[in-house]
Amino acid sequence: VFEGFDRAGTLRAICGGGRYDRLLSLYGSPKEVPCVGFGFGDCVVAELLKEKNVVPVLPHTIDYLVAPYNQDMAGKALSVARRLRLAGKRVDV
Fold first, then answer.
1. What are the residue ranges in the chain where pLDDT is below 70?
2. How many C-alpha atoms does 41 have within 13 Å on its Cβ side?
3. 3-state helix, strand, coil in the chain (%, to 5)
4. Nearest CA among 38, 44, 39, 43 for reference residue 5
């Protein structure tokens, strides 16, 4: 198991992870499967960037994101996206 912190150590862990050999058996796997994993704390990274005054300026590249609730709604989502694009909006599906 590991955790990574900023050099000042003022924030909680930025990332962490380790081995999780029996994790899948907790979710029904009939045999033990060796695993490793890690994750980053997006909120911690955002706070660190603000603290260091290095938050990148990222331009908006889309106006709307259209997400179908399920596969049955995909056609309707594409139709909505098309109408928005025809109205001059930048859309991602």
1. none
2. 17
3. 30, 20, 50
4. 44
